[in-house]
Q: What sequence folds into this?
């Protein structure tokens, strides 16, 4: 082993004894260079790009989600507000309708009452008028009847004028 | 029967000696190519399968790197380098534990003795590979430094002539004790700059030797234990090698990340990067 080392040292110095060889060194340098180039060019550069794009996209997605949630919340609030307003409107309309209906009913009742009263009064008046007419015609009829009866009974004794006077007096008494 | 420090030569293609470690490295490279192909073929917006798993890894790696860089933009910039080194070293290390690695081979003559030459040897137990990685990572950190700070500012960290010029200018303008002190400080900083320059070279050596040493030692350990008693004896040590494999991958990639962070840091403001370096050394010490 010592012999070997001495021999090697004699040929290529200390480095040579450790196996260092210019050509081999260059070959290994090339190996490393190839791996470095491949990793840099086709692995890390595109990979970092993809990763950056993805994190940008995820960030955008999260932002969009937040925006959408805020939008939905405001839409919900808007809807609630509209529903509440509509409910209040409906309540008011129902109340107004109830008031109107009551007023209408009262007015109708009053109108009907007046009408009925008017009809009753009219009936009464007409009845009274009828009665008078009837009485007048009865009176005339009775006068004629009495005249006829008296004429038949007293034909000869009285003239027409005295007769008429007599009857009138008699009717006056009757009335 | 022993494991030689240098990877054994199997054959020669042209003038390139093909060693068993180089074969393993090629297998690992092929695995990564297949992985990259599968990943790029099935890239989906909604990830699943390997894409999902790898995205999880990437995300985790970025978060982990943020602890050193304190800056997501820089973590993303360094991700391809650190994110290649870590899995590359990890896969290579763990591949060395598969049955057949270092045990299936051809009989050949080594220094006049008939020995079994394994067809596959852990890629990181070859100093050529770890040197390639170590030098690459330091060189890349300097490239990043130059790209971020500019050539002058980056090298100004190491050759601090600017400070000397400023101090000399101050002395000429108004000679005083404070100005002399300033020149003294600038001279010290110049010296520190040179030490830094040497430490840059040391970084390359320490990165590569640490990784090589750990994996090679593990390989030797398993080899020796297996030749002592092949049944069950090496099993606990294989578990240990699993941990060593991931720790070394982590140490190498984290140190590279620290070098990258330091290199892209502005001069005079590197306190917390140095803290980060201390942290990584602690990690290494435990490994």
A:
């Amino acid at each position: 082993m010592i012999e070997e080392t001495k021999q090697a040292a004699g040929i290529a110095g200390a480095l040579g004894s450790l196996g260092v060889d210019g050509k081999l060194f260059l070959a290994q340098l090339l190996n490393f260079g190839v791996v470095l180039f491949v990793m840099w060019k086709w692995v890390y550069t595109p990979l970092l790009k993809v990763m950056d794009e993805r994190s940008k996209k995820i960030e955008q997605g999260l932002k969009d989600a937040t925006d959408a949630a805020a939008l939905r919340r405001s839409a919900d609030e808007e809807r609630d507000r509209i529903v509440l307003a509509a409910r209040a409107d409906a309540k008011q309309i129902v109340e107004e309708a109830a008031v109107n209906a009551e007023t209408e009913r009262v007015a109708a009742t009053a109108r009907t009452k007046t009408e009925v009263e008017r009809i009753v009064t009219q009936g009464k008046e007409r009845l009274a008028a009828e009665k008078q007419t009837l009485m007048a015609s009865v009176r005339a009829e009775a006068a004629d009847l009495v005249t006829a009866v008296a004429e038949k009974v007293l034909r000869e004794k009285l003239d027409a004028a005295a007769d008429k006077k007599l009857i009138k007096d008699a009717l006056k008494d009757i009335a | 029967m022993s494991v030689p420090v240098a990877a054994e030569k199997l054959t020669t293609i042209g003038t390139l000696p093909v060693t068993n470690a180089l074969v393993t490295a090629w297998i690992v490279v092929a695995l990564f190519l297949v992985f990259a192909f599968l990943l790029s073929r099935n890239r989906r917006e909604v990830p699943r399968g390997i894409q999902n798993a790898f995205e999880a890894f990437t995300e985790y790696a970025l978060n982990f790197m943020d602890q050193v860089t304190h800056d997501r933009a820089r973590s993303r910039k360094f991700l391809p380098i650190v994110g290649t080194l870590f899995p590359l070293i990890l896969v290579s290390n763990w591949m060395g534990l598969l049955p057949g690695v270092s045990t299936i081979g051809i009989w050949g003559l080594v220094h006049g003795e008939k020995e079994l030459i394994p067809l596959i040897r852990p890629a990181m137990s070859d100093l050529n590979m770890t040197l390639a990685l170590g030098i690459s990572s330091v060189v890349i950190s300097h490239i990043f430094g130059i790209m971020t700070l500019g050539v002058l500012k980056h090298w100004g960290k190491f050759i601090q002539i600017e400070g000397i010029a400023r101090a000399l200018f101050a002395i000429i303008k108004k000679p005083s004790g404070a100005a002399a002190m300033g020149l003294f400080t600038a001279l010290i900083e110049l010296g520190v700059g040179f030490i830094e320059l040497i430490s840059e070279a040391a970084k390359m050596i320490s990165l590569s030797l640490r990784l090589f040493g750990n994996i090679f030692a593990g390989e030797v350990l398993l080899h020796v234990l297996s030749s002592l008693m092949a049944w069950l004896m090496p099993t606990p040590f294989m578990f240990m090698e699993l941990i060593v494999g991931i720790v070394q991958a982590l140490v190498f990639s984290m140190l590279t990340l620290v070098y990258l962070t330091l290199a892209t840091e502005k001069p005079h403001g590197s306190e917390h990067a140095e803290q980060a370096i201390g942290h990584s050394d602690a990690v290494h010490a435990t490994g």
User: Anything to note?
Assistant: Chain B touches chain A through 46 residues (CB under 8 Å). The first strand of chain B starts at residue 9 and ends at 13. The beta strands of chain B are 9-13, 16-19, 105-110, 113-118. The two ends of chain B are 28 Å apart (CA to CA).
